Amino acid sequence: MLRGRWIGMLVLCLVVAGVFAWLGQWQLGRAIDTDPTPPGATEEVLPLGDVVEPGAYLPGPSIGQRVETRGSWVPGDFLLVTDRINDGVEGYWVTGQLRIADAEEKTSLAVAIGWAPDEASARKAVERLEAEADGSVVELTGRVITDEGAVPPPRTDPHRMTRMSPAMLLGQWHDVEDLSVYRVFLAATEARGGLADIDSPAPIEQSPVNWLNVFYAAEWAVFAGFAFYLWYRLAKDAWEREVEELEERTA
């Protein structure tokens, strides 16, 4: 084991183990959030612009953050989203395009305005909301939620939407030329147009420890130990073979 070849392999194992140890330390550093979001932070109402910008993705800690904003409804853009569960009951969301007031450029935000138990009730709410969309500025409070992702509509109804997706809504909105759009949508706290309030509880607070990363860090430590074991096993096997050959020659 003290021969040059095995000493060289030991040095190589030390380098490999050192790399594994560094990777384990890096993974462990990512496993613990040293600056976690304070409990109840999402319940503080913040200006929308302080939480997310148009076209930007919503940071993980800000998902479900309560925000406030103001703007005017765009007529003709009150659309329905199906398969919405509210307090365990399936129904419809009525959504709208809110043109943000006082924005530096033409900017819109998708808003889930309220919930209806059936399509007929949702259509009636749309009629009431259309009548109120006279360009006046309204103030809204709600939770910002990430895009649920676009899915192809059924062939029988190409305008039907089952996901709350600003990207899909944008395809049916009016006056979208040179429009800047938020990737997130707002689930309004108080419904309008005779709709029921959307059930939108506070997000579950996450643990500051990411146990998956802790597991990965432990794996790197095992790999580092295995590098030394592999060197020891190979060197010992070579030594045992040499001893056996020497004994055979002696015999």
The proportion of strand residues reads: 15-25%
Helix content: 25-40%
CA radius of gyration is: 30 Å
The helix tally amounts to 5
Largest sheet features: 5 strands, mixed, barrel
Helical/strand content category: alpha+beta
Poorly predicted ranges: none
- The coarse overall form would be elongated
Keywords: Cell membrane, Membrane
InterPro entries: Surf1/Shy1
Membrane topology: Multi-pass membrane protein
Protein name: SURF1-like protein
How does this model look, in words?
With 251 residues, this protein is α+β, with helices and mostly antiparallel strands. 36% of the residues lie in helices and 23% in strands. It contains five helices and seven strands, in the order αβαββββαβαβα. The protein has helices at 4-31, 48-51, 119-132, 166-170, 211-250, and strands at 46-47, 66-73, 79-86, 89-100, 107-116, 138-145, 180-188. A hairpin with a 6-residue loop joins strand 4 and strand 5. The protein is elongated and about 105 Å long. Belongs to the SURF1 family.
